[in-house]
Here is the input.
Amino acid sequence: MTTARSLVTEAEFLSLPETMQRIELIDGEVYVPPSPTYWHQETQWRIITSLRQWAATQSHPITVCHSPLDVRFAPGRILQPDGFVLFSALPPTHIGPIDEIPALCIEVLSTSRAHDRVTKRAIYAEACVRELWTVEQEGFIERWSGDSLSHGETVHDVLRSPLLPGFELALPTLFA
Here is the structure.
């Protein structure tokens, strides 16, 4: 005998108590990844810091965010990228999931590699995210861009992106 699993609606998901734990909703399934590793947190912090320094030099509003923060990529698809960039100003009083699709999403890979690399990349592509960085503990970043995030480039030295004019991230320093 099999037991039917009930799916969670977006309203039910959003009514869960506030938490600092990362939790995502994908097509009715609630996904709770394990806590990030120290390496994950440190790398995420370094990337976000670099992006915020770059954003502060730009003439137009840019918001740089990090998890845990809900982003609605489609109805019933609320994810928490490790980091993301919006080409707009997010008001400090914003409540609830962010409905704007980020231009850039960042996933620092540690424990749930297939989820971050395959599942989330497909969701980001369907939502028309313009660029995805998957950060590898081995000391490189895959920069995905193009239609359906189908063009991949492996970067070992300096990460640059046409999406972020003037931004440079020295990977030897990032991974030191």
Summary: The mean pLDDT is 93. The longest strand covers residues 131-136. The CA atoms of residues 157 and 172 lie 7 Å apart.
